[in-house]
Write the structure tokens for this entry.
Amino acid sequence: MKRIGTALAAILMIGSGLVSAGAATLRVGIQDDPDALDPALSGTYSGRFVFAALCDKLVDISPDLKIVPQLAEAWDWAADGKSVTFTLRKNVTFHDGTAFDAAAVKFNIERMKTMPDSKRKAELAPIVSVEALAADKVKFNLSEPFVPLLANLSDRAGMMVSPKAATERAGEFAAAPVCAGPYQFVERKSRDLIRLKKYPGYWNAGAVGYDEVVYYYVPDSTVRLSRVRAGDLELAERVAPTDLKTVRDDPNLTLHAGQGLAVSHLMFNVGAGAKADTPLGKNPTLRQAFELAIDRNVINRVAFNGEFLADNQMIPPSSPFYDSAHKAPARDVAKAKALIAAAGMTRVPVEISYENAAGDSRVAQIMQSMAAEAGFDVKLLPMETTTAIERYLNGNFEAYIGNWSGRPDPDPTLVAFFSCSGSQNVNKYCNKDLDAILTQARGEADDAKRKALYAKATDIYLTALSSIPLYHPNWFFAARKSVGGIVMVPDGLLRLVGVKPTN
Amino acid sequence: MSTIEAAPVPAQMRAAGRSEIRRLLREPSALIGGAIILFFVILAVFAAWIAPYDPNAPDWIAIRAAPNAAHWFGTDDLGRDVLSRVIFGTQASLAAGLVSVTVAVLIGLPFGLVAGYFGGVTDMVISRVADALLACPFLVLAIALAAFLGPSLQNAMIAIGISAIPVFVRVARAETLVVCTEDYIAAARAQGLGHVAILTGQVLPNVLAPTIVQATLTMAIAVLAEASLAFLGLGQLPPAPSWGAMLDVARQFLGEAPWMALFPGLAIIALVIGFNLIGDGLNSALNPRH
């Protein structure tokens, strides 16, 4: 009998051991399958989401959008703003055991600037050269004062990969990335999962709470949430606003919500090819009428249960550079009609294209209905993702509901959409005065002066209305109560340092 | 010669037609199916008078309202009356069924007749093309075509119609092969009638019955296909109501607003059952083997 008892006790111990071993795995449901897992090549949010566990950056951003140290402990701008010197953290190693030092930083910046397919070239363009002054000192020389550089380095452009791995496996680095983050790469099954394990040599290993983290690709947000509720996942990113009640009502779940940087906006083709030749494309007054015809608060309430932030600017209110003087105009159908009449029209046709996703589809139909009251005959053209992106990039649309992930600094967003040669300026808006202001702002180290410049820029783009910003999505993660230490940051990336099982 | 004169085929067909209608009226499944289809046809034709609300008019303060006295079927995610949208959605479903099957019959039937009648190389070419199209599952082909043509009800109907063509080629060809062995065809040839006259006057009337049965059954499939394409965003453009698109939106609110899915779902089931019942009834009434 005693033997049986001992055997049972042994089985129970083994069982509890298995349970605790299982509990040290964090299973995360992500909406998209990331693209190349190489910071130089990555172009997706889901890729950045995984990098947050895999690759540390020179600097990070805090929840209040301040630049904080990560692999660089300190930095010092030259008086003329044309160089910045970083003091690097000591005793940091990459996942292959090689040392992280000034030479590695130089290698990484040069790699991202010269690699043929690198998507980081624009973000690092102002860097002319990198000098390794000492093992822990590295100096970036710039072609012009460029204040947003630090914000750029808080994202993929600042992620450091192992020079040894990147050189030896140059062509296939993305298949097994080697960085200096809290977790190291184990395996990837395409369109299924990405498995990482804790890197014991991490500089802040004591704050890493899970032995393993697995990202499962679960495209449907309702399914992601169901799997968290069933205990099949510990965390789901991007829970749909319409599902938040379910999360709040579930005693096993915690809703982690945070303001985001992203913006959803209605772009009008004002200069790209034949599709720009429309009443709304040619006449800013009509675009103003369109803005007055819609009610952003209704869009937010109906399409997103009021969980997002209705707003009229590309920069979210959480940014220190947000211009609170430019309030969103209230809906005014009578004034919209008057503006249409002033433009010599009674009915204004417009075709709105969008990616056929639930949120955009609802927003489009709400706008269609509201704008019709003022005199806009809106035709909706939903498209599947590939076609939508292709048409967007080619400026093949009259109006398009764009979704931009945003950046911590206003410069990348405003330059991308409103400078004459901006990378996202697919609707071909161009204003030389605005270009000059944006160039001046990126060289202005004084925050107050910089804010004043962005206020001028806001005034210009909100008058031209080549794009009508509609709302800023907030971030919603649903996690089981057993996951502690989650901190929401406006970039919507899940930082795993400090995240631990609570039981 | 007298034998031929004694058996004028069209007259025989007309007589058979009357008796078949009588047989059809005695088929309970055909009657029930017919009643269901008639009900939906009335809904579609008189939608503007029957529906209590404009199907596209949103009510921003009645979002996803449960069924109540004002909205019998509740409202959807934009506060639109689900009952009105189900009623107007009938138009898209019936149009898809009728138009796509008509397209398929108008193209498939002549090819099937020609293949069966002439045989040889003509038959081989037509049959292989039909086989190749049949090798691709119906819905997959329809989705591929609709995705290629772009989202709209018209394109969805074309895609479904093209996908259904090979079925009619096969049915018409098989029946033609049987009919061509009949004595009256030999007699017609002996009379010196031309191919066109024989095909239209002698073969076609005898191939029509199974084609009609097949067309009715294919309409059920076409209705489902239209709903599937709309569900995938390849059908009717928003905000025009379509049962499949309504189900797609409702899917996101199954837990909190099940009425959004229930009523369009029931409508699809009812219409498909209607077409299937009437197809079975027609099969019993028209198939000479019964």
Observations:
- The CA atoms of residues 194 and 223 of chain B lie 39 Å apart.
- Chain B touches chain A at residues 56-58, 60, 63, 77-79, 147, 151, 233, 237-239, 249, 251-253, 255-256 (CB under 8 Å).
- Confidence is low (pLDDT under 50) at residues 1-16 of chain B.
- The domain at 34-286 of chain B is CATH 1.10.3720.10 (MetI-like fold).
